[in-house]
Please model this.
Amino acid sequence: MGQERQPDYSPGSITASEGRRLLIAEAGALLARLQQVQPFEWTMPMATAAAPSSEALRKIHWLIKVGREQLRKRVGQFIRMMRNDRGKPLDKCQAAYSILKLQFNSLLDQFDIFADVVNQRSEHDTGIWIAGLDVFARDALRLNGDFYEAPELICYLDRGHGAAIRRARTRLPGGRENPVAVIRVPRERMVGSGIGSSLVHEVGHQGAALLDLIPSLKPLLEQRAIDEPTRRTAWKLYELWISEILSDVWSAAILGISATAGLINVVSLPAYFVFRMPDGDPHPFPWIRVKISLAFGRALYPDPQWERLELLWEQMYPTESIRPAQRALLRVLSETLPHFVQLVLGHKSALLHGKAFRDVFPVATRQPWQLRQLYKMWRQQPAAIYKARPALVFAAIGQARADSAISPHGENRLLTQVLRQWALMKIVNH
Model:
């Protein structure tokens, strides 16, 4: 027998045709992997009550479906080009294939974003709780007036300390528009009224964007910095922090004191971090962030409870030991805070149709005394709680918790019950 011919691996031995065959094979492998990106409806088992809304699932389905079809078409075009355009330099062919790989990875990134959401819906109990949070989130985006077409919101749990949102109508990896808002909630906060503070804060980011509040407020804050040079630092910081502050205001306006109590739970850290202010951070440093939330809560829902909570915060983190420069900054922030609160609550952006920001929230029906009466009534008529708006339920139970009228265990049990019922009612109403 003759010797078997061995491939020639010497330098300069690779021909253009061999390079094209390699790229065609890699593109074919890309198509094979693309086939594995299957619709969630085929792969994710879940209880019916745990499923996201049908509209949210429809939009996610079409996002992935269209992405797959577009990428499959581009890969097919690439393979035909490799076979037909034999004069194209190999480096240009490789550059074209590299673009396809980036587009494929962007599609996978999009798929994984929503896989994180849908996967948890198959978890026992957790999936139904999360479906209830979807209902709560949508209600927290409802305002007193027809100001926008609200997007679908879907929630999921994750480890970590803070919540986050990937807003609807923003860009996904690869540049396509996100069809639904995706809210990440810390798993360690399930289930209690504290989760309401985190979730509604993230809803507030979506709401503020829909109302175009940040672009309309920033020029006003810039002008105040010009008009009040001795307080310029404070106004410039409010401008830097305005996005996070608006979300905290949204939470306080929807939930009342439980929003601030939940915030305190999140930012209760060693004193060094509570007073530390990193340059350029869009989040107010924790000590002043709580004070800002207290100020807005007091303005919206007057009650002695705000003074008590503020005194507790100041005793937990006294300012005597901080540096003089920090105390001076806290002083000027405290001096300007009442004016800042009135500016924000009285603001009328173009999309508010002449209404002040404070007037779009259900403030008239969520005063502390009203929430206390509601909770007492629900104790006597338990079935009535399921007829109330979800955000109102969280506000009233949060008020009861702040008043020590319900234990943490009782709060957990009651909120678990209403979350499960909201998930079920979502199916019935649909």
